[in-house]
Prior knowledge:
The complex is a heterodimer of chains A (315) and B (253). With 315 residues, chain A is mainly α.
Amino acid sequence: MHPAYSVIFFTTASGAGYALIFLMALFAAMNGVPADPWFGAVGLGLGTVLVTGGLLSSTAHLGHPERAWRAYSQWKSSWLSREGVLATATYVPLALTFWGWVIKGSMDGTFSFIAAVLAMMCLLTVHSTGMIYATLRTISAWHNRLTVPGYLCFALLSGSVWFHALAQMFGYQTPAVALVVIVALFLSFYIKRKYWRSIDTQPGPSTPESATGLGDRGKVRLLDPPTMTENFVQREMGFSIARKHAQKLRRICFFTYFLIPIVLTGLTSNGEPWLAIPGTLLAAISVSVGVVVERWLFFAEAKHVSMLYYGAEAA
Amino acid sequence: MTLLPPRPQPGDKQLGLVIDLDTCVGCHACAVNCKEWNTGGHSAPLPDHDPYGSDPNGVWFNRIHTFEAGQGTSSRTVHFPRSCLHCEDAACVSVCPTGASYKRDEDGIVLVNEDACIGCKLCSWACPYGAREYDTDAGVMKKCTLCIDRIYNENLAEEDRVPACVSTCPASARHFGDLNDPDSDVSKLVAERGGKELMPELGYKPVNRYLPPRAAKKDQGPSGVGASLPPLVDLAPDGDSKFLRWVDRVLSR
């Protein structure tokens, strides 16, 4: 699949944003972080900027962004519609939580409940984005049980490292936050490794023979494509990356989203602020780079069955 | 509405195409006629960029591939027209967030409502057959309409109320009809020739059927060449002819 930068930006930014808001809201609801209005403003603010930037970017790339409101209508059948509904609805508890935390300066009582609702809605929104990809039967790399957990884990990872960095900047040394980061790192590593192994070894059920119905005669291969130049389907679905380039990028991905952050977090999170603040900030930046590479590979390594008509031997 | 209609019920019409891979000669006339017909009508106009230049590209609803089926001397060149198969379980319909992609209850045709389409392209990701293309000029998705503006068009003579591709095929390789009616011509053709579904393992329940190339006749090659001619004369042992035997030999070369 063609790795469109707008989609990569949208999924990584909104994933990180929703996860950051999720953690802020969850920790606040459980009184896990002090109700410091500045911390609330920066944390929720950063999360909002990431989410809104991502949503606007993906809307701007539509053929008809002015009709985007129509996308709220098909929530009964379409995960993309559900994502739109949930993303928009999440702004309500987000605004209320922001008001309670930053303006009123207290996260008790009703606001605690609203923060819990906010956390839930962030989770549901990110889940529905992952389901858009996981429900596509045409892309066997995505149509499996690892896609949604992987998507959720990488969102949690990218949000938690920023939550951790911000907490350190504001002087909070909650070990629970560092624990969330470590757990997210290991979960993401485990799922991604399983995912990569599965796409390397298990091709999808479709072949050029099943795509053409000519399998009774033996092997089917393309002699002539329909046109001499590429068409929309080939541009959108036909991207492929050489194995050795993919392996190189996977290594870069591993270093940036896992190895560097785990070393930095492990070494610095319990240390003095002059160490912990740059340490956790670098870890956050490293994860952000790693998640972009991971998402790029997620698209680039995905094969679409329509390419079986254009010379692909497997999908 | 992107909820698929509850079908097929018995008696529901399911219009579709049957494409005969045995007789298709790969002339692309169907693709060209489709493109021409859709210069006006339901999905018009279709983009056609740089048509005489070095990088022509545009939207076509019907595209003809050529495959080699089999290997070596038993292989066969098969021309393969590919367009929307108007699936019963069309994921392109259910993933659409705006309801622009829909399947008609009355005849099963899958269409795009171009006034509602936002051009998100998710339907093209959901289509295994590459049937949907994005019109960069109009900002919407387009696909085979099964010539809905022809088949019910009272301004056309009755015999012309078939899809443009079907009417133009010089090899009579394309057929149109109700595939849910076991007595229709197309259904009989599918039953007789063993019409195939494409990628049935994905569960889209495509409606169009592809008739596979017929098996070669005995002692002929796959395309019929190489049959030995029957002897010209019956040469009795006491019979004439050195001359006739010579004629026979020459004509059997």
